[in-house]
Automatic annotation (TrEMBL):
The chain crosses the membrane at residues 12-32, 79-101, 113-137, 157-180, 192-214, 234-256, 320-350, 370-397. Its main location: membrane. PANTHER family: SULFATE TRANSPORTER. It comes from Streptomyces sviceus (strain ATCC 29083 / DSM 924 / JCM 4929 / NBRC 13980 / NCIMB 11184 / NRRL 5439 / UC 5370). It is found in: Membrane. This is Transmembrane transporter. Pfam families: Sulfate_transp (PF00916). Residues 8-375 form the SLC26A/SulP transporter domain. It is a multi-pass membrane protein. Keywords: Membrane, Transmembrane, Transmembrane helix. GO terms for cellular component: membrane. GO terms for biological process: transmembrane transport.
Amino acid sequence: MMTKYPHLRQDFAASLVVFLVALPLCVGVAVASGVPAELGLVTGIVGGIITGLMRGSSLQVSGPAAGLTVLVFEAVSEFGLPALGVIVLAAGLIQLAMGALKLGRWFRAISVSVVEGMLAGIGLVIIAGQLYSAAGLKAPASGLDKILGLPGAVVDALGSTTALVSLAVGAGTIAVLVLWKKLPKKAQTVPGALAAVLLATVVTQVFGLSIATVEVNGLLASIQPPGMDAFGELANPAIFGTIIAFTLIASAESLFSAAAVDRLHDGPRTEYDKELMAQGVGNTVCGALGALPMTAVIVRSSANVQAGAKTKASRVMHGVWLLLFAALLPSALALIPLPALAGILVHAGFKLIPFKEIVSLWRGHRGEALILVATAVSIVAVNMFEGVLIGLALSVVKTAWEASHLKLEIVDKGAGPIQAHLSGNATFLRLPKILDSLESLPQDRPVELDLSGLHHLDHACRTALENWAERHSAVGTEPVRVTEPEPAKATAA
C-alpha cells in the first residue's frame, strides 16, 4: 500500500491541517456572504473532492474565498439567493471555455498593482462590514456606506451591553489569531483560526453569553439547485455584468494563487489552462448545487504545502473530512458565535491589504502605487466589478503613456530654415504637446520637419502633423519639408 502511495502519510497529515484551516473559513465566508453556512461547506467539499482530483496545480486548495465575499453579497442582495446558482454555473462554464481556448496564461498579463488593489479594496469592505457583525449590528449595503457609518455604529455599540459583549468576543478572536503565531511551533499544529473559534465557542457556552450564533438548516436542506425562476433572471441584462465579474475575479485569484504556490514548493509546476478548466468544473458543480463560487485560496494552499503535502491526495482528503463533518456534526455549527467568525474575517481582510507592497511601489514605481490605491478606492466607493475595470483602464492608460515617449528638438541657426527633429513614439497621447511646440514656431520662416527618428507614428499624429504643415505653408511661407520615417523603423497605426 505504502509503495503504491509513497506519500500517503504526509498527505494524510496535511489533509487534516487543511481541513482544520478550511472549516472555520468555509463557514465564515458563507455567513459574511449572506447565505446559509452549509453552502460554504458544500463549496469546500466540491473544491476538495472534485476540483482536487483534476489536473492543473497539484498542491493548491480550492474553496469559498474571502476575496469573493463582497461580490457574492452584492449579487445575493440584487438578484436573490436562488439566482446565485445560475451566476456561479454560468461563470464555471465560461471558465471551462476559457481554459479550452488556452486563455489561462493571459491572466498572468494583468497588472499586479490592479490585482493587489482589488484585494485591498475587498479587504477594506470585508473589515468594515464585519465590524458591524462583530457588534451584532446590521451593516449598510454599499462599501462606502459601511465605512462612513462606522462612527455611528461605535456610538450605538457603546450604548448597548449586548453589543459590547459581542465586540469583546470578536476582539478576543482577533487577539488569539495574532498571538497564535508567536506560540511554539508544536502549539501551532492546531491552526489559529480553529483555535480562536473553539475558544470563543467555549467562552460563550461557559459564561452563557447571549450572543448570536450560526443558524443551522442541515446540509441537504441548504442545497437548492436553481429552478426555472432563477434561470429567468438571465433576462435581466444586469446579471451578465455580475457573471463576468465572478468569472474574471475568481479566475485571476486562482491563477495568481497558483503562481504564488509554485514558489513555495519544488514539485510539478501549474498548468494554467488545465487549472482554469478545473476551477470551471468546480464552479459549474457548485452552481448546479446553488452553492458559493470557488477559487483557489492562498491561505489553505500555503497551509497544505507547509504541512508537507506531496500530491493532490491531501486536498481530496480535506474535502472528504469536510463532507464527513457536514454529514455527521452539523449541529456543532450552531454553537459557533457569529462575532468569532467576524473576527476571523476581519483578520483575513487585513491580510488582503498589501501594506509592504504599497510602500515599496511608492518608492520605486509611484504610478503603479497610485493604480493600486485608485483600484481599492473605486471598489469601496462604487462596486467590485466597476472598481476592477477602472483599475484595468488606468493600467492601460499608464502603459500607453509610458510607451509614447517622444522628444522634440528645435534647431534654429538664425538664418535659413528652422529644423524640428522628432524622435521616439508619436502617439495621440503626446499630440497636444507636439502641436503646441510646432505652432509656436515663427509663421514667416520655412520649417524642416525631420520624422526619421520616430519608431512609431500613429494615424492621429500623422494627420495632425499634415494639417499643421498645410496651415504653416498657407500664408505664403515656403512649404514645410518633411523627412519621412524609414518604413522598416516606424509603423503607422
